[in-house]
Design a protein that fits this description.
The protein is α+β, with helices and mostly antiparallel strands. 60% of the residues lie in helices and 15% in strands. The protein has a two-stranded antiparallel sheet. A hairpin with a 6-residue loop joins strand 1 (5-10) and strand 2 (17-23).
């Protein structure tokens, strides 16, 4: 899970933070930083999507390269077998 939300309360007596709830990406953005939070979330999602796209392009490219080299090896073997006869 790339994004999650935790709800924290701060003790008035000792200023310690206590997590009272953890959720997935279903969260409410409140306060002065909500616009910055929205931008940060959007940037994170876009970066993750771009990373997935780049990985897929690399994987597809490698698969094409492997299938081409496998096909050319098969042709080479057939040619060498034909020459030995």
């Amino acid at each position: 899970m790339a994004i999650f939300f935790k709800q924290v309360v701060v003790s008035r007596t000792d200023s310690r933070e206590y997590i009272i709830e953890v959720n997935d990406s279903a969260m409410s953005l409140l306060g002065e930083s909500q616009e910055e939070d929205r931008r940060t979330i959007a940037e994170l999602v876009i970066a993750r999507m771009e990373n997935i796209r780049v990985q897929k392009i690399r994987r597809d490219s490698e698969e094409r390269r492997e299938s081409r080299s496998g096909a050319s090896e098969g042709n080479s073997r057939r040619e060498s077998v034909g020459k030995s006869n």
